[in-house]
Amino acid sequence: MECDSSGQCVRHTAEKHPDFPAFLRVNLGERTISNGSSVERPATTEIKALTRLDGRVILHGGENGRGWAATIAESSGHMSAGVVADAYTFALFGACTTP
After folding, report:
1. CA pseudo-torsion sign 91, 76, 16, 37
2. H/E element holding 33?
3. CA 58 from chain center: how many Å?
4. How distant is the alpha carbon of residue 66 from its chain centre?
5. pTM here?
6. How far is the C-alpha of 33 from the C-alpha of 21, rounded, in Å?
7. Fewer CB under 10 Å: which end of the chain, C or N?
8. How far is residue 1's CA from residue 88's CA, in Å, rounded to a whole number?
9. Is 48 helix (H, G, I), strand (E, B) or coil?
10. C-alpha distances in Å from residue 61, one per residue of 27, 44, 55, 88
């Protein structure tokens, strides 16, 4: 979901937007998140903070004027994340698998 400062929200999916990766690679050991599936446009961001709390992995980071946070349930792999800028936000939902 993408929401602007007026409260208007639009649903986006990876299938309809080729710039959105269908998968993200979360590497807790290296503290990175990458779009691993895209050879043409590789992108990686640093995990600035990583905390384990109440059965969840909580990640934080930011770059290019945006901040982000993600929470992953260790038992199920369910993930929710948010990207925040000054004029919009993205709410992301997914699930993690092990390689």
Report:
1. positive
2. strand 32-34
3. 11
4. 12
5. 0.78
6. 12
7. C
8. 10
9. coil
10. 14, 12, 20, 17
Per-residue pLDDT tens for 28-38?
999 998 886 55
pLDDT digits (tens, 9 = 90+) for 42-77: 688 999 999 999 999 999 999 989 999 999 999 999
Gyration radius of the chain over CA positions: 14
Residues constituting the chain: 99
Reported as a pLDDT band with limits 50, 70 and 90, residue 12 is confident
By C-alpha distance, which of 45, 93, 97 is closest to 74?
97
* Alpha carbons 76 and 71: distance in angstroms, whole number: 12
* CA 34, 26, 13, 58 torsion-angle sign: negative
CA distances from 12 to 61, 70, 92 (A): 22, 18, 10
Provide the 8-state DSSP code for 68.
Answer: E
